[in-house]
Amino acid sequence: MKENSKTVSVLFMLFGILFCVCLITANVLETKQISVGSISLTGGLIVFPISYIINDCVCEVWGYAKARLLIWLGFAMNFLFVLFGAICDIIPGAPYWTNQEGFHQIFGLAPRIAAASFLAFLCGSFVNAYVMSRMKLQSQGKNFSLRAIVSTILGEGVDSIIFFPLALYGVVPNEALPALMLWQVILKTLYEVLVLPLTIYIVKKVKQYEQEDAYDEAIDYRVWKIFKL
């Protein structure tokens, strides 16, 4: 078993890149409303749950401290993407530019929605990582499937409870908000359950390759200890 250090492996770096790409992609896809049968959802549902799957994998293999670094890295990259998009949206377009309205719909993210999204992401992701870490210690590394599902339900639940009221209160009818929040959690959790066999396979292979299987004993769970690996 490798000793924990302040270095990160190539595989961890690749997980980090994929994590950030998923978050940024979800941010763009959130601008489209989609329908699954009679249920209205946002396009971000296609890719956002992958970030929770990556969070589970990183926490399982490298531990909570590395997951904490990944979460803050994802937050920073997403913030930069939104910031640069907002700046570009404000700059006047060229005289021949005819797509300003469409560009604004994607990159002119309202400050209220952006703030709600960032806060919900941080809280939900850290709840997910904390639950994975604590349940692993309590189960002595057993029942990965149960830990992944429970942590996702709680993480996605916190994410939805924070995001939808802050971002959509007064926009979506109040009586519709609870159902919208519930369906988001249900479908995102179902997403994780469906890909769970693949997640288990990836975690197993990564553990074998990295010779790593972290147990967060005596870990500092404070979220701002970003570089305490």
From TrEMBL:
Ranges in a coiled coil: none
Transmembrane segments: 7-28, 34-55, 67-93, 113-132, 144-169, 181-203
Annotated function: Involved in the import of queuosine (Q) precursors, required for Q precursor salvage.
Annotated protein name in UniProt: Probable queuosine precursor transporter
Keywords: Cell membrane, Membrane, Transmembrane, Transmembrane helix, Transport
InterPro entries in the cross-refs: YhhQ
Organism: Hoylesella nanceiensis
HAMAP family per record: Q_prec_transport
Pfam family of the protein (one): Vut_1
Membrane topology of this protein: Multi-pass membrane protein
Compartment list: Cell membrane
Family: Belongs to the vitamin uptake transporter (VUT/ECF) (TC 2.A.88) family. Q precursor transporter subfamily.
